[in-house]
Each structure stands twice: as C-alpha cells, then as structure tokens.
Design brief:
Keywords: Cell cycle, Cell division, Centromere, Chromosome, Isopeptide bond, Metal-binding, Mitosis, Nucleus, Phosphoprotein, Ubl conjugation, Zinc. The chain has about 210 residues and is α+β, with helices and mostly antiparallel strands. Helix content is about 35%, strand content about 25%. Strands 3, 4, 5, 6, 7, 8 and 9 form a 7-stranded antiparallel beta sheet that branches. The radius of gyration is 35 Å and the shape is rod-shaped. The structure holds zinc ion. Zinc ion binds next to loops.
C-alpha cells in the first residue's frame, strides 16, 4: 500500500513540476511568445495567463496601441490590426495604390509614428467589397512595432542595494577616523581597567 501511495505522490509531483514549467514558458517574454501573439494564434492565447500587450514603435518605443483593441492579424502580410490607436499614430494624407492580393487593388494611406516619423503600417482608404472590414482598422507591420507584455517586468533592486554606500576616498577617511577613535577608546579603557585591578590588588594586600 505504502509504495503505491508514494508512486501516486510522485506522479502528482511530476504533474506539478510540468505545470510550473508550462507557466514559466508562457510568462517569459521570449520572441516566440510575442510572435505567436502577433501572428494570430490569439484564440488559443486568450485563456493563458499572459497579460495584455502594449504595442510600441520599434524605433523610438512610443506606445501606439494595445491588445485591448485587437482586431486580428494578416499572416500573409505580417501585419496586425488594431481598432483603436494612441495619438502617437499619424495617418498620412497621400493615397497610394496597393495590390493586397491578386485582383484586389486597394487605396491605402501610410501610418506614421509621431515620435520618429517611421512608417508603422497603413490604413485602407478604399477596398473592394470583400475587404470592406479592413477599412475600420489600423494595420501595423510586425517588423516595425515591438510589444511589451504587462506584468513581464523582471528587474528588481538587490536586497541591500539602495542603502549600500560606494567606497569613496571621503567615506574611507571617515571609517579610518572612526577606527582610530575606537582603538584609542579601547586602549584607554584597558589602561583604566589595569589601574582599577591594581587598586583592587592593593586593597587585598592591605587586608
Ligand atoms: Zn517611433
């Protein structure tokens, strides 16, 4: 019986460690996790513990939007679509023709970053009827944006960090001064002790 119980417990532990590993894998921000998010496996990811994602300009890191306004992704074009974006995103004024796929020509406007003026993606100004849904969203090139997963910050201060004082010459001088003072104090106390002991000895001798 006992051995059976142990083996069940071991199995239980195995399952637990597997769970822990899985959590580590999903919560660590490696590029694959971000890529999965960007390349549209979002249905699967929605149930995971990953926090919302903030999308930022790859060049100057200004926030351009977040996953709360996620509208989907275009695998073929390496683009993600967001329904709402921040004021850091500027829409250009010049239409240009773009062949999205064979036999679907669209009019598009470039989308810029307000901070560094890089082109981040585009919006559709005019589309064939079958692509109408795309006109209501901002399309970002995956290559031109970065992302930050909320809660993924990992830097902390070391336990003794903020109070630790750098050893400057001045600080060293103070420490040396204090050491000298303590040495003097110890010496004078030893001397005083000697005198007291001598006095006691004399007192004993007198009796
Ligand atoms: Zn920028």
């Amino acid at each position: 019986m006992a051995s059976k119980r142990i083996s069940i417990k071991q199995q239980h532990m195995k399952v637990n460690t597997m769970k822990v590993n899985a959590t580590f894998e999903t919560s660590s921000i490696d590029s694959t996790a971000v890529e999965e998010k960007l390349f549209g496996q979002v249905e699967e990811d929605e149930d995971s513990d990953d926090g919302p994602v903030v999308f930022i300009c790859a060049k100057c890191k200004l926030p351009v939007g977040d996953s709360m306004s996620w509208d989907g992704s275009e695998d073929g074009q390496n683009q993600i679509r967001l329904k709402r974006v921040t004021d850091n995103v500027l829409v250009g004024k010049e239409n240009r023709l773009c062949e999205v796929s064979k036999s679907s020509l669209c009019l598009i406007l470039d989308v810029f970053c307000r901070g560094c003026h890089s082109v981040l993606g585009m919006v559709y100004a005019s589309t064939p009827k079958n692509l109408d849904h795309k006109r209501s969203a901002f399309c970002f090139n995956v290559a031109d944006i970065d992302s930050y997963v909320l809660g993924s910050a990992s830097q902390t201060l070391a336990a003794e960090g903020p109070k630790e004082q750098p050893v400057t010459l001045e600080y060293r001088g103070i420490v040396e001064q204090q050491l000298t003072e303590m040495k003097m104090l110890v010496l004078s106390m030893a001397q005083r002790l000697e005198e007291i002991e001598a006095g006691l000895q004399e007192g004993c001798d007198d009796v």
